[in-house]
Amino acid sequence: AVSTDASHDERDAMVRAALAEHGDSGLTPRHTLFYFYGDDHGLGDLNEVARRAGFFTRGDEESLVLEMTMAVDEASFASTSAMMQSWAAAFQVDYDGWECAVVTN
Prior knowledge:
alpha+beta
């Protein structure tokens, strides 16, 4: 079994590249959003697990957004990205990626 989806790794790198263009290393914690789509049952189960893991959650019957303040540099973010992909597989929902604010100091 493949542990991570190469397309998500590529998309993660693209988000980080866009941050870097603005002088953002990703090391400063910032508000970060993760997007999931699927059925009410899978999203409901994901919502429970995500809340227990410390995420704020919001959504409806077809989508769920997980929110957390965190660093997004490659080293600290890789495990979170892998977790999002494994949650999507476990709860049979679609993980559509993430976004965050640009932070420059």
